């Protein structure tokens, strides 16, 4: 491609004529192209059209992100999903009804009876305040939507915002020196995030959980950090701190941000990439962000006291925050002192820095050593040591989303992105900038944490989409450039015509070059100078020839470099076309998988279940049936005991007081319920009666094949209960190390309360008592309940509710045991001793 004449090369060319390509340029350029004003107008028009097209594509991506999450509403109904969202919905109802001040001071006496819970100080308020603000705004605009409707559609709305934030993070900033990648990569990454199944699983319509808004806050905070790093603007630094504050309000995963950014700052310092922009991007975030985070009641002083925050404020405050200030001071001193004085100042600064760091490190070690868990929470320790929860905290290990993922989980949640991520990492190194190094660090850390806990696949999804968007954009750019470079050859003229034109262009510069020496000889002949003058002229001519040859070599080197670079990027036409076709097929496969995941895998609400069989679709609405029965057939002050999974739903849908719920903040209270379920009927009745429980709810799936029932969760009840009350031992419930409910089950298992409440009258369903989940007949089929009575069982036997019998109505044994007269006196003497019902 011909380039316009660069006047800066005249110095290199000397007095010689410019290269032939530049002398021929005016003859080869069309008149319309030669006018710079018209070219400038065409460029601005093209840029404006590209901007409008980009905005239109972003709107389509936002619409896609919103609409693909509506399958749950279309196939089922507008209903809240899962367990935790019901608590968030109940809190939002309270906020919209009573106001913000009553919300902060709300003491909920319907949870964790008899302890209760201070809602304002134990909840992340970001989701609730966001949905409440949307409801308030819509009602002020005379759009009367219910609180439930707003809660159902909050997650799809913020998924569109997350896609747009991904575009901002991935696209090139104005200064290409600090870019992540271009606009094409940004649009591709946004489209991938709009459909990625891992994010859909937490943001479908009805999934009213903290992650619905937190992922947007996470991506937007990263974008503002990169923006501040690129511009060095305090305005963007302040916005970054505010965005981080919103993230702190929304989700406990904010600790990922406050640990990842210091790691990137340390990486930039170590690799010699320090600048004032780095200081402005990090220092205000740590100071202002920490102050704002401490204003959130659930965080409070944890923002500076726990080890999760030490990474940014204390531990890496030594390694990053203090180092950053030391480096800034060194650069400042270096600019104002002489080299000799600079060495003296450096010695002084290093000495003081080592002393301060040693003092802070000593204080830190003392604080950490005083904590049994070294200042780390149980969930954080389980991230650093995947075996920690299973060894020491079974309540964390019992949650399915805290388990490590399997390889099929990666293919299910990010699909083909797993294969594109390595290519995106390679592309980020070409060239490596501050922004691209941050994205590489983001993907590396998120891959590790997602391998520890399946829930954190949600954090991996944006990073995988960014890397895949970069890989796809770079691949399409290379393949389309190859096609564009070779496509005109198919429409060229015949080879003979091309050869004539080439000869003409080659002959013309030689004619011009041959004319120049003849002119010089004519002038010398006319002047007829002396011999001295002739020798001087010969030397000048020889020097001119040398300069001319050197200039040709330099220009050949300069002109050949871009040509060689282009030749390296050009692929065969057929290979480029096939590669683009394969990428399109890969994208189509990704779209089909995402639509299937959104429509089938992640749209079914856990409270309403469906199954397909030869006779059609079956709907199981047993949960709402049971909660409706509790709401209409029990007193308002009655207490309901169940495993903690169903606490939020019971409180929100039945409006009854529960003993434990999904907050799991009190391990002893949960262990008490687990001990009652693991005990025989009489000790279990004593425990529940001491807690003022009137009804017990169990979930049973043996009839319809529902695998997430309480029998499958029972071993976790044993482990959690045994962790607090040693008389509950897991081996007592296992036969040869196997968990069984058939005739070979242990007597302890066959006589525990969970077994009896689940399988009471079960043999009446088919005459055999065949459990479809466990695939076997139950061991103990015919038995009576002495301390509990069945009051309600749903249509498909999925939820069973029992009532504690009062002491005077309890059924005694058929015959009283004969007592020995010698022991009656000892028994009477022990009557006044109060027995601990939990032993």
From TrEMBL:
PANTHER family to which the protein is assigned, alphabetical: DOLICHYL-DIPHOSPHOOLIGOSACCHARIDE--PROTEIN GLYCOSYLTRANSFERASE SUBUNIT, DOLICHYL-DIPHOSPHOOLIGOSACCHARIDE--PROTEIN GLYCOSYLTRANSFERASE SUBUNIT STT3A
Pfam families (alphabetical): STT3
Protein name per its UniProtKB record: dolichyl-diphosphooligosaccharide--protein glycotransferase
TM annotation in the entry: 48-68, 118-138, 150-170, 182-200, 212-238, 244-267, 279-301, 313-333, 345-369, 410-430, 437-454, 568-592
Cofactor field: Mn(2+); Mg(2+)
Localization, UniProt: Endoplasmic reticulum membrane
Composition bias type Basic and acidic residues, residue spans: 519-530, 539-559
Keywords: Endoplasmic reticulum, Glycoprotein, Glycosyltransferase, Magnesium, Manganese, Membrane, Metal-binding, Transferase, Transmembrane, Transmembrane helix
Biased composition, class Low complexity, residue ranges: 821-831
Ranges for region Disordered: 494-559, 809-839
């Amino acid at each position: 491609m011909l380039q316009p004449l660069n006047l800066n090369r005249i110095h290199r060319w000397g007095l010689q004529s410019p290269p032939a390509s530049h002398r021929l340029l005016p003859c080869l350029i069309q008149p319309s192209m030669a006018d710079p004003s018209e070219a400038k107008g065409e460029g601005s028009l093209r840029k404006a059209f590209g901007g409008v097209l980009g905005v239109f594509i972003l709107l389509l991506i936002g619409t896609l992100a919103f609409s693909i999450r509506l399958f749950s509403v279309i196939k089922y109904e507008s209903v809240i999903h899962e367990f935790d969202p019901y608590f968030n919905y109940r809190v939002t109802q309270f906020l919209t009804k009573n106001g913000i001040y009553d919300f902060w001071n709300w003491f909920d006496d319907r949870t964790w009876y008899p302890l209760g819970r201070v809602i304002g100080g134990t909840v992340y308020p970001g989701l609730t305040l966001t949905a409440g603000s949307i409801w308030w705004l819509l009602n002020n605009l005379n759009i009367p939507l219910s609180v439930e409707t707003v809660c159902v559609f909050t997650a799809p709305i913020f998924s569109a915002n997350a896609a747009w934030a991904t575009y901002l993070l991935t696209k090139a900033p104005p200064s290409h020196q600090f870019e992540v990648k271009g606009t094409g990569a940004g649009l591709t990454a946004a489209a991938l995030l709009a459909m990625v199944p891992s994010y859909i699983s937490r943001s479908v319509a009805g999934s009213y959980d903290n992650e619905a808004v937190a992922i947007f806050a996470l991506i937007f905070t990263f974008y503002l950090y990169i923006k501040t790093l690129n511009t060095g603007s305090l305005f963007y630094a302040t916005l970054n701190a505010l965005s981080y504050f919103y993230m702190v309000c929304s989700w406990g995963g904010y600790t990922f941000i406050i640990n990842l950014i210091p790691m990137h700052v340390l990486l930039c310092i170590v690799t010699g990439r320090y600048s004032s922009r780095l200081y402005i991007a990090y220092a205000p975030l740590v100071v202002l962000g920490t102050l704002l985070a401490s204003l959130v009641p659930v965080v409070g002083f944890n923002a500076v006291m726990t080890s999760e925050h030490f990474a940014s404020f204390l531990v890496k405050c030594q390694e990053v925050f203090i180092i950053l200030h030391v480096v800034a001071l060194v650069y400042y001193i270096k600019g104002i002192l002489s080299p000799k004085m600079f060495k003296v100042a450096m010695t002084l600064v290093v000495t003081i820095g080592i002393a301060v760091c040693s003092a802070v490190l000593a204080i830190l070690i003392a604080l950490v050593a005083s904590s049994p868990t070294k200042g780390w929470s149980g969930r954080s320790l389980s991230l650093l040591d995947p075996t920690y929860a299973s060894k020491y905290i079974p309540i964390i290990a019992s949650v399915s989303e805290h388990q490590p993922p399997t390889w099929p989980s990666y293919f299910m949640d990010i699909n083909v992105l797993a294969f594109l991520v390595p290519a995106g990492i390679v592309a980020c190194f070409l060239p490596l900038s501050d922004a691209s190094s941050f994205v590489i660090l983001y993907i590396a850390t998120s891959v590790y944490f997602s391998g520890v806990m399946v829930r954190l696949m949600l954090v991996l999804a944006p990073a995988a989409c960014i890397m895949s968007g970069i890989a796809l954009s770079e691949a399409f750019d290379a393949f389309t450039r190859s096609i564009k470079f070779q496509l005109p050859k198919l429409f060229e003229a015949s080879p003979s015509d091309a050869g004539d034109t080439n000869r003409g262009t080659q002959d013309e510069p030689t004619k011009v070059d041959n004319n120049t020496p003849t002119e010089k000889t004519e002038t010398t002949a006319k002047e007829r100078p002396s011999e001295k003058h002739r020798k001087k002229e010969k030397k000048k001519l020889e020097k001119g020839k040398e300069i001319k040859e050197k200039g040709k070599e330099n220009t050949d080197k300069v002109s050949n470099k871009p040509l060689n670079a282009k030749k390296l990027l050009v692929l065969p036409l057929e290979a480029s076309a096939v590669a683009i076709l394969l990428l399109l097929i890969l994208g189509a496969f990704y779209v089909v998988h995402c639509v299937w995941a959104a429509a089938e895998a992640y749209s079914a609400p856990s409270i309403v279940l469906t199954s397909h069989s030869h006779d059609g679709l079956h709907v199981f609405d047993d949960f709402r049936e049971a909660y409706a029965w509790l709401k209409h057939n029990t007193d308002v002050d009655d207490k309901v005991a169940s495993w903690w999974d169903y606490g939020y739903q019971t409180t929100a849908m039945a409006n009854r007081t529960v003993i434990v719920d999904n907050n799991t903040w009190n391990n002893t209270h949960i262990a008490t319920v687990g001990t009652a379920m693991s005990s025989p009927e009489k000790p279990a009745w004593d425990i529940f009666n001491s807690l003022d429980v009137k009804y017990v709810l169990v979930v049973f799936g043996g009839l319809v094949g529902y695998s997430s029932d309480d029998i499958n969760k029972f071993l976790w009840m044993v482990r959690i209960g045994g962790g607090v009350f040693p008389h509950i031992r897991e081996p007592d419930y296992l036969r040869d190390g196997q968990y069984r409910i058939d005739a070979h089950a242990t007597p302890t298992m066959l006589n525990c309360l969970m077994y009896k409440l689940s399988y009471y009258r079960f043999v009446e369903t088919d005459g055999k008592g065949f459990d479809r989940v466990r695939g076997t007949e139950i061991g103990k089929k015919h038995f009576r309940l002495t301390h509990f009575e069945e009051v309600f069982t749903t249509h498909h036997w999925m939820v069973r509710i029992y009532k504690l019998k009062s002491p005077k109505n309890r059924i005694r044994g058929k015959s009283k045991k004969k007592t020995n007269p010698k022991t009656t006196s000892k028994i009477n003497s022990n009557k006044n001793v109060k027995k601990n019902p939990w032993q």
